[in-house]
Structures are given as structure tokens and as C-alpha cells.
Amino acid sequence: MWAEKKEATLTQKNWCFLCVFLTPGKGGHIDTLYPSTQKHQLERLDKKMGVNLTTSNKETVNKSDVLFLAVKPHIIPFVLDEIGPDIEDRHLIVSCAAGVTISSIEKKLLQYRSAPKVMRCMTNTPVVVKEGATVYATGTHAEVEDGKLLEQLMASVGFCTEVEEDLIDAVTGLSGSGPAYAFTALDALADGGVKMGLPRRLAVRLGAQALLGAAKMLLESEQHPGQLKDNVCSPGGATIHALHFLESGGFRSLLINAVEASCIRTRELQYLADQERISPAAIKKTTLDKVLQQPGVTVGGVANGNSKSGLSLFNNRGSGLKKKN
């Protein structure tokens, strides 16, 4: 199992909820696997947070109750092949892979367990600052308590709610990809400020604060965004002239089309995952091929060397997260 560097960096920020293999285990432990290239970063995390490190996939599964799978969609089958034999009735499998359906995971795990408990979730990168947006759907064998546990875990890093599974692709297009839309808009706003004479650092800060404040106003007031927009626009003022310019450029349509494009691509990824079982060594445009070159790295049971490479993080301090009775 592997992670892109950007994901490994995120795991250091806040409880590694966006990692390759995150597991809150018994007693509030959290486990994760990592590419060997991230060893030094996680050793620093070990010293800072007091965690125990291990390099065994089997140990990660055996010491955990909830297993988060956050790899590329087409890698999910290989991950399931690797961990499947060690899955027990107590395990809850949570997939964060875009487009991968609960039924496809259940079908795979039925080779190993008669009633695998599977859930699917979609979250986003702001979980690293405890402002994430997460939705989840429950599988055939998952129980109400499992949903409560997942919601409790993800609510600790932002908003979390349950939805029907057929809505998750749309969620991916909106909040899953949403931070990228916001960062792109913020970058452009800052450029506008710089063009008008503002220092870059100040322009970025002002733009970010404007977006943060607007989002907070919307959530706290529960007013329609259109009403809040109208409140900013005075007759004949600067803001309404700016909005007219945005409308003439198709601003709304571009955002709607962006959400649609992300949603459609998510469904395409599921189709590709269903149609092709690509050899991990042949997967391109990821860091997987680089990771496989490292001795001892294993992905879905395919290893380069004699030992498996991974890392489990066992937090020595209880998180206080327990299943509700």
C-alpha cells in the first residue's frame, strides 16, 4: 500500500485522516501504512506525538477495528487481496476511493468473510484543519452502531452526515473537489489584488479571510446565499458592477459545469476499475511505480523484496472515541 507525498504530508497535520490506511483501533489507537520514502517524516511524528511504529500490514489489520482505504480506485482490488485473509467480523472497512461502490468491495471481501461490514465515504482535504466535509453510506452488513462510530470519528475533523450511496458521486464533484475550486478562485482574487497594487501576502490573506468569513456567515445565519449576496450589493455600487462582469463571463455556469465534470469523471473511474485489473507495476501517473522500486514494498500482495513495507501508528493516548450503546 502506498501514499502520494502530499497525502503523507497531510497525515502529519491532524490525525492522518487522509492516509492510505488509517485505522482507529482498540483503545483509540490510530494506524497507517506508508511508503518507505516517508520514514523520516513519520519518525519525527513519533517523537512529537508519542506513537509506536510497525512495518507489518498484518499487524495493522490485527490491531485495528476500523480500516480506512484511501487509495486510487483501480488499486482497491489489490488492497483487498492483501488484507482480505486477515479481515474478521469485528472489522469495519471504510473506502474513501472515488467511484468505488460498496457492492464491488463487498463482492470482493465475500471471498474471505460471509458478512463483511463495508462503508463508503467521501471527505476532503480541509479535515487537516478540522473543517472537513464528509458524507458516508452504509453497506449491506454494516450496523447502525458502525455508522455512529464513523460519524463520531469524522465529526472530530469537521462536518459529517449519512447519505444514500447514489449521491456520493455528486458529493465528490461538490465538496470533494470543492477545495480546489476555492483555492483556484482565491489565487485569482489575489492576482486581482496584486494587479491593483496590493502586496501579494496581504492580497492572499484578504481573499482567504473574505472566503472564510462568507462561509461562516452562510452557515451561522442559514440564509440563502443569494440573499447574503444581495446584502453586499448596494444600488449602483462597485460590487454589483463586479458581479455583472462575472455573470457576463459565465461564472455560475463554469462552477456548475465543474461540479458536473468531477462527478462524471468519478463515475468513469468506477467503470475503469470494474473493467480493468491493471498490474500495480504498470500503473502510471502516480508515485506507485516509484514506490515499487524500493526494496520490500508491497501492494496488493505484489512485493519487491522479501519484507513488506508499511507503517502503523498506534497513538498511545486514548482518543476517547467509543461506540455508542
UniProtKB/TrEMBL annotation:
Q: Where in the cell is it found?
A: Mitochondrion
Q: Which PANTHER family match?
A: PYRROLINE-5-CARBOXYLATE REDUCTASE (PTHR11645:SF62)
- What is the taxonomic lineage of the source species? Eukaryota, Metazoa, Chordata, Craniata, Vertebrata
Q: What is its main location?
A: mitochondrion
The GO molecular function terms of this record are: pyrroline-5-carboxylate reductase activity
Query: What protein does this entry describe?
Result: Pyrroline-5-carboxylate reductase
Enzyme kind, highest EC tier: oxidoreductase
Q: Write out the GO biological process terms.
A: cellular response to oxidative stress; L-proline biosynthetic process
Listed GO CC annotations? mitochondrion
